[in-house]
């Protein structure tokens, strides 16, 4: 930013200060434009840079400086992890003022320093308590900043800023050479730390306006919405503007947010818990000063814990049924946690996270688990999960298993829905599988054929790969949620509400039986019909639809499950070994990793070199050679004995089969979950296919490796009953 522009920006925001101003006064949140919430009237485009707060953030009005007129803390002294936290007195901004972004950054620092999940939930909830008490309209941008998201997944708003662009912006904003930035980033392994140190060593004549959480969030959204040939330079200008205004650790976390990874070990489950704790302990809507600062103060430690867990479960269940912070948070602020179920319900147009099945190793296990319950067997189709939403106005939307909007990918499905639904259907949500279909041979095609289809903005006339939609569940019908209904009832309503059309819309092929021989024959037939195997589902008892859960009410039975591990794994490629012999000139083996949600790191789980054809190895080499790193990412966890020839960026997910799992002194997968010092590795891993439909963060988790696969394997080997640790786990 040029000196004249900096001066104008500072003058407009009322923050023209010499660098010799007292440090405490300079960094008090109430001292700058972001502390005073009257938006400035810009004289130039750049002057409005810090005044915008985005359409979703209502402007605040100036109020008292703090509790009883006390000046708020210096943001650098802000500590949301302190014991006996006071949401007003311990805040670093006053009532009616914008939440300083530095308060969010200081919270991230505390969370990054501590690995204890419960303590981090408490720390984050303290920040949220202050926001609710002092600046409630800032709570939504603060939540999204903690999740490192710009909105609901189905809106598809993503930053997509590459590391090279970020380095360029850091260099330009701090006056350093790009080569210096690259070298330091290589050394530290974290561009965020480089940005922080570069900014802290920079001196400017005038102090730029201080960043607010809402202002930063608004700028991130603005960057994401930019398109066109000139958009990259505009994005860099905005990023430079943010960096120039950064103080202390702000540059670290803005850089990480722009790069897509906060790397502080904060999972969405923890954020939901923190939100529930915050609005329960410091209820919103009290006015100022709030009378109740800690609603759980009079409770015993045990009663307080139970109460907060109950409140958290209400919020989490609500979020399962209506996964939109944009809708839930305003209702939460107005009505509180306990009223959420009355105001937030499943809504067509807002995608749900799907129910998933547990793997099994054989028909005998199925019969044992369901010995007292009626069940059905359905074909398990090898396609892409498709959640079909029919709105009352006739609009049809299609969402992926990750809640991404796939409507423009399947115009052929959209056009056929009005033909296959009966007139009685006004609105509904279907769970289905989109499968590649050969209209000439009238049969299913492999999943790999489906992946060749264009991903977005597909024109119906250009479609070369036809799809057939196989519907297997209905979750909502004409204003009524059906997720609490037994599967037998849901299946009946599905069949009564739609009509089949060959090659376009069919119901999942199924058979109700409890005969081992019949299940075995049906499994064989499913393979002959180009399916993966069977899904086995309870019909009456414990037969509800468990949103966002991997449940024992649904079991997966594949042909290759009958030998070896009862499920495949989706693993991330993080390294490659140079080929020898016939594989010279390409990669001959690879280092794979699972994903740990708590630590946000990739943990090595095996080397793999089987299951590849020469053609597939050539394709892998052609793709992966463009993603080689000079050194491993700081969020890779591995042992020096497994160091590959080339480290790779975590960009691709592979589906892998193995004989079994074992405790490993070398690999780091699920370390600490089964053995305190050792991880888990795969024995005889075999490559099956690339999972283009999955992001690296959606790979098999360390928890699934430990609890869903390793412990299940041990229990089967030991002929033991399933332990509580293997109970249903949250999908998200």
From TrEMBL:
Gene3D superfamilies: 3.30.1490.70, DNA ligase, ATP-dependent, N-terminal domain, DNA ligase/mRNA capping enzyme, Nucleic acid-binding proteins. One of its GO terms (cellular component) is mitochondrion. It is found in: Nucleus. It is an enzyme of class 6 (ligase). One of its GO terms (biological process) is DNA repair. Residues 1-41 are annotated as: Disordered. Residues 1-26 have a biased composition (Basic and acidic residues). Its main location: nucleus. Signal peptide: none annotated. Its EC number is 6.5.1.1. GO terms for molecular function: ATP binding; DNA binding; DNA ligase (ATP) activity. InterPro entries: ATP-dep_DNA_ligase, DNA_ligase_ATP-dep, DNA_ligase_ATP-dep_C, DNA_ligase_ATP-dep_cent, DNA_ligase_ATP-dep_CS, DNA_ligase_ATP-dep_N, DNA_ligase_N_sf, NA-bd_OB-fold. CDD domains: Adenylation_DNA_ligase_I_Euk, OBF_DNA_ligase_I. It comes from the Eukaryota. It holds the Pfam family DNA_ligase_A_N. It catalyses: ATP + (deoxyribonucleotide)n-3'-hydroxyl + 5'-phospho-(deoxyribonucleotide)m = (deoxyribonucleotide)n+m + AMP + diphosphate. PROSITE patterns: DNA_LIGASE_A1 (PS00697), DNA_LIGASE_A2 (PS00333), DNA_LIGASE_A3 (PS50160). Belongs to the ATP-dependent DNA ligase family. DNA ligase that seals nicks in double-stranded during DNA repair. Also involved in DNA replication and DNA recombination. This is DNA ligase. It comes from Gopherus evgoodei (Goodes thornscrub tortoise). The gene is LIG1.
